[in-house]
Amino acid sequence: MKVTVSRKAHFNAAHRLYRKDWSMEKNDSVFGKCNNPNFHGHNYELIVSVTGEIDQETGFVIDVKILSDLIKAHIENAFDHKNLNLDVTEFADLNPTAENIAVVIWNKLRKYIDANKDLEVVLYETPRNFVTYKGE
Length: 136
Hints:
Low-confidence stretches: none
Largest sheet: 5 strands, mixed
Number of helices: 4
Mean pLDDT: 97
Number of strands: 5
Structural class: alpha+beta
Distance between the termini: 23 Å
Radius of gyration: 17 Å
Strand order of the largest sheet: 3-1-2-4-5
Oligomer: single chain
């Protein structure tokens, strides 16, 4: 009997979508206003879900307090009120698209979640634009 436990979180961050190896014209053509050299920001909403068997002793798939603390320590503290391009090392050479941000979040959390449990990250960049990553 597998159950999914989810925790919502929130962070605000700025970013710029562009490739250093492209001209400004090509970046503008592909990324439009998201290529603003002065950056732009989002109020990101994050849902982290862990799926697994219910522990017969505790009744938990994962203790939600532990999941909350992991998200706070490894995601919110690292990303909130940051410029992703400039302040977050994972994006030094990685374009901080919503897709890439979701993968980075998944990778940061995966090592703290038991291997026998599935991890899913849903990242809302806007209320209508969101991505989901479940690992490879």
